[in-house]
Amino acid sequence: MRMKNLMSTLVLLIVLPLVFVSSPNVSAADNASASTQEFLKVASVTPVSENAGLPLLRAASTTKYYKYQWTRGANPLMYVKDVIYTKETSSSIQETSKYQQSGYILPYYASHKGLSRSSSGAKWIKYQSKKVMSIKYPTPWGQTTLIKNNLVDYRTVQG
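Above: the chain sequence. Below: its structure as tokens.
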């Protein structure tokens, strides 16, 4: 009975992260709540009568800073996190910075291979995120790779 429980536990530890590696973990629905800072510029405007002939002043456009974050894998066993910071105005979106972060606990292995911009428009930017996830076991002759996946995720940031 103990051997059966031990075997089922080992199978779960190996199979569970494989489910996360083979299926994308998309948390883009949290984009609106993931904003880090908001700056609102308000111009003080004196009231102008309609007959004065002076043009009305518009309120200054708002600039907002957002943090977009996606995670692939099972944290903390093995994961790769893509993080993109953007600056958005009413007419455009600009990237301020981006990075990848990875972590793993042996025998699982995760590494990040780059986050690059693939295309962009006035209100959107598309990124290509490359990563490697695998399961490796140490042997007296070196590491043996049981499973290895080269993954490419496509991320879109819209303003």
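Strands lie at 35-39, 63-74, 78-88, 93-104, 108-120, 124-139, 142-158.
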